[in-house]
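User: Just a sanity check before I run the rest of the batch. Below are the structure tokens for the first item. I only need the designed sequence back.
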């Protein structure tokens, strides 16, 4: 049985966001605290709090936990993509780790 990833739309948006950040890094010659060779999204989790408010937690490995510019690019690209595709605003948390 093939291991299907959940949330393929979100995963595609994250992959696009990583490419946008990579292009910005190359343009500005700023590595952004990222190991570009091994960078990858390792998990996307859907969370619902006790009030029923939904959010998504995105974990990307091979970037510094304080890679703020990279995190902002990913967050903005994914948020904008979700809004464009679904007309919904979704709460997101983007976390980076080595």
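Assistant: Here's the designed sequence for the first item:
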């Amino acid at each position: 049985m093939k291991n299907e990833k959940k949330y393929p739309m979100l995963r595609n948006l994250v992959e696009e966001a990583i490419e946008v950040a990579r292009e910005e890094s190359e343009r500005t010659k700023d590595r952004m605290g990222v190991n570009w060779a091994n960078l990858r999204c390792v998990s996307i989790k859907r969370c619902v709090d006790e009030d029923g408010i939904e959010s998504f937690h995105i974990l990307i490995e091979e970037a510094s936990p304080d890679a703020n510019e990279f995190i902002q690019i990913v967050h903005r690209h994914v948020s904008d993509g979700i809004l464009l595709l679904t007309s919904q605003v979704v709460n997101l948390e983007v976390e980076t780790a080595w």
